[in-house]
Specification:
Blueprint lengths: L1 H4 L3 H41 L6 H17 L4 H18 L3 E4 L12 E9 L2 H13 L5 E12 L6 E13 L3
Antiparallel strand pairs: 1-2, 2-4, 3-4
Length: 176
């Protein structure tokens, strides 16, 4: 049947290749090119609409929640070293623990919105843990940033004894 048309084989090869390219375009390349064009259009819309990540409602809720948390741990820094230290000493005394060291105010511990207070307690291990628990649950004295419990050797003439001490760092949000 092809002999009647007298078409050269080269022309049939070219026609077959074109037909194969059209089928491949319809099945594979058309959807890819369409997706690429859609991506470019959407990318232009995003650039024109501005910053989509800015969500003022979310920022307001987050700031409100941060302020609520901050108010829980806020203390008046003017009265901190007098009134609040007496409250902490009473908590320690209730558990037979001694508030042994309250260092002077170190300016390197101060920031714009908070200050760091270090306190040292002496007592037995379980009483120190009870004091730590009560300090953590007491409001308006600050939040415990870290606590370290150590056994320190006490040099003595006859025998070496140890005392258990706990260093507690409080972060206090400043109000005044």
């Amino acid at each position: 049947m092809l002999e009647k048309f007298k078409i050269k084989n080269e022309y049939l090869l070219i026609a077959g290749t074109l037909l194969l390219l059209i089928v491949a375009y319809r099945l594979a390349f058309a959807r890819t090119i369409e997706a690429w064009q859609l991506h470019n259009r959407l990318q232009k819309r995003v650039q024109q609409s501005g910053d989509v990540s800015y969500q003022p409602g979310y920022l307001e809720r987050r700031n409100h929640n941060f302020n609520k948390i901050l108010r829980l741990y806020q203390a008046d820094t003017i009265n901190y070293r007098s009134n609040i230290l007496s409250v902490i000493a009473l908590i320690a005394q209730g558990e037979d623990v001694k508030l042994s060291e309250v260092p002077s105010v170190d300016p390197s511990y101060h920031t714009d919105g908070s200050l760091l207070e270090k306190l040292r307690f002496e007592g037995d291990y379980f009483s120190l843990l009870k004091v730590l628990n009560r300090l953590q649950s007491t409001g308006n004295i600050g939040i415990i940033r870290s606590a370290a419990i150590m056994a320190i050797k006490m040099p003595s003439s006859h025998n070496e004894s140890r005392k258990v001490v706990m260093d507690v760092y409080f972060v206090v949000a400043t109000t005044g």
